[in-house]
Design a protein that fits this description.
With about 350 residues, the chain is α+β, with helices and mostly antiparallel strands. The protein contains eleven helices and twelve strands.
């Protein structure tokens, strides 16, 4: 396999000088038909808008040449020129996504420009976000279970399949691309039409050393990028950290959620299985208490009331060893892949 190590610290700005008088806010002041026309001229048809935010518009379209369906995110160039943080995240995402070339990482194609906008084209995943799968399952559990009987996690077969896929993608980022993801969460994992899990949201990636022994100046890392529920203890405490082990921690949180439909360190309730559609897997709660519980993960997970109901002891063993506070005893990505819970039958 060809080494695709990337040098993120030297990413150039897109650097296009434009007349931006017709651009306001997050997207250019143009009609939907104008945007569709620009995309059509690049060889895409059946263009439909799927969502919008203050930074970009997302569309789905089909390549005339390959017949492949894609997502196209449209960013106003004027916004990118003013917003260095957004620009940096897009540049990182595009660079890593174009170079990674792995079946479990969302592929990004060469972006293109109009006079006013940047168009980022990426692989379309028909199954949507993993978050939606978990939320749907948790809502079903909440309406069908009663008393203290625990809601079921996702099926063990599905959990194993997702974890194998995601771990494989992360291993590729670490060992072949020389980057840590740093933004792993339910929303960062998409499912294709065959339910294969794929890593997305690569904008927080940071350069790390690779297995080939190449060292870079910004390792260990210091910037906190993780979402609150997925943050490792060393990140919570503001310590320099190993990006690879921070990714393992976030993956341990992910595994816990897939098994239980609960975040591992959220505040315990009188009924630990009480669930609702807006509390089960969404961020919320007391930050200070959450940080304290994260830093005491080893003790908490030994007697966690929800984890105790997971049917497979190999699954609970893997969770506890991925969520070790001591980074020297926390499993590596390769050790996770070799764990009996994830081994193919």
């Amino acid at each position: 396999m060809v080494d695709c190590t990337v040098e993120l610290p030297n990413i150039p700005y897109f650097g296009v000088r434009l007349d931006t008088s017709d651009i306001v806010g997050g997207v250019g002041r143009k009609s939907h038909d104008e945007t569709v026309r620009e995309i059509f001229l690049k060889g895409f048809t059946h263009v439909q808008q799927t969502s919008s935010s203050d930074t970009h518009v997302t569309l789905v379209a089909q390549s005339e040449e390959t017949k492949e369906w894609v997502h196209i995110r449209v960013y106003a160039l004027e916004r990118l020129r003013r917003d260095a943080t957004l620009r940096d995240r897009i540049e990182r995402s595009v660079l890593v996504g174009c170079k990674a070339q792995h079946p479990c990482i969302v592929r990004i194609m060469q972006p293109f420009f109009s006079r006013t906008d940047l168009f980022v084209v990426e692989e379309y995943c028909a199954g949507g976000e993993l978050l939606s799968w978990v939320e749907t399952h948790c809502r079903e559990a909440a309406t069908t279970k009663s008393g203290f009987e625990p809601p079921l996690g996702l099926s063990m077969g599905f959990v194993k399949s997702v974890m194998r896929d995601v771990m494989s993608g992360v291993d590729h980022l670490h060992t072949r691309c020389g980057v840590a993801h740093r933004g792993i969460k339910l929303e960062s994992i998409l499912l294709d039409n065959c339910n294969r899990a794929k890593l997305s949201n690569l904008g927080a990636c940071a350069v790390i050393s690779t297995n080939e022994g190449k060292e870079v100046k910004n390792n260990p890392l210091k910037v906190c990028c993780a979402s609150r529920h997925y943050a490792a203890p060393e990140v919570v405490m503001g310590l320099p950290y190993d990006g690879k082990l921070v990714d393992v921690w976030a993956l341990g949180v992910l595994l816990f959620v897939l098994l239980t439909c609960r975040f591992p360190f959220e505040e315990e309730r009188d009924n630990p299985y009480e669930s609702s559609s807006d509390t089960a897997v969404r961020d919320g709660g007391d930050d200070e208490l959450l940080m304290e519980r994260i830093c005491n993960a080893d003790e908490l997970l030994l007697k966690h009331p929800v984890l105790a109901h997971v049917s497979d002891p190999l699954a609970t063993d893997l969770v506890r060893n991925m969520l070790r506070v001591n980074t020297k005893t926390r499993l590596t990505v390769r050790e996770v892949l070799e764990h009996p819970f994830l081994r193919m039958p």
